[in-house]
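Bit of a strange request maybe. I'm writing a small parser for C-alpha cell strings and I need a real example to test against, not something I typed by hand. Could someone generate the C-alpha cells for this chain?
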Amino acid sequence: MTLDLFLAFAVFAFKASLSPGPSSFILLASGATFGLRQSLPLLLGISLGYVLMLLVAGLAFEPFMSAPPALFMVSKVVFALWALWLAWKIARRPPPADETPAQEMPAQKTSAGQRLLSFPQALAFQIINPASWFVAFASMVSFTSAVSSDAGFVSLVLMLAAIFAVINLPSIGLYALLGQVLHRLFPDPKKLRILNIVAAVLLVLSILPLVLGAVF
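Reply from user aminoacidic:
Good idea to test on real output. This should exercise your parser:
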C-alpha cells in the first residue's frame, strides 16, 4: 500500500464514519441516556458491522451481488421497520429518574435489556443497513481497482478493513460522547426528554430516503 493510498482511504474512513446516519443518532441517544461507557456494546457492534461489510464487499463481491433482488428489498424493509421502532423507543424513553449525569452512571445500573441495542443487535442492525452496503462496495471498488494479483488484492482488502476499524471506532464514538456531554449540560429531565425526541426525529429523517425509495 502506498502512502497516497493510505492517506486517501484514511480520509475516506474518517468522513464516512462521521457522516450522520441511523447508527449515529442511536449512539447519540444512547450516550445521552446511559453515557459513553455503557454505550460501548452498541458502539462495538456498529463498528464491527462496518468492518465485516467491508470485508464482504472486498472478498465476496460476486457471490453477494448475485443474490436474489428480493433479498435486498427484504433487508430494506426490515432495516426501516427496526429503525422506526428504535425511534419510537427513544422518543418514549423516560430520562433517568435520579438525574445522575451520564458519565457518572455506574455500569451495573444498565442491563442489556435496558440498552437501546445489545452488541449482537447493534451488529445485526449495522449489517442490514443498505446505505452502508453501498458505501462499502463503492469504497472497495475505488481503492482496490489498481491491484492485479489475487494475493495482493486480499492483502489490500484486509489492510483497508484494519485501517477502517482503527479510524471508525473512535470516530463514531464521538456521537455517544456528544450525547453524554449534552446530558451533562442539560441534566433537567424535561430537557433530556426533548433531546431524546430530537434524536428520534433525526433517526426517522435519516431513513426517509430509504423508505421512499422502497415505496416508489
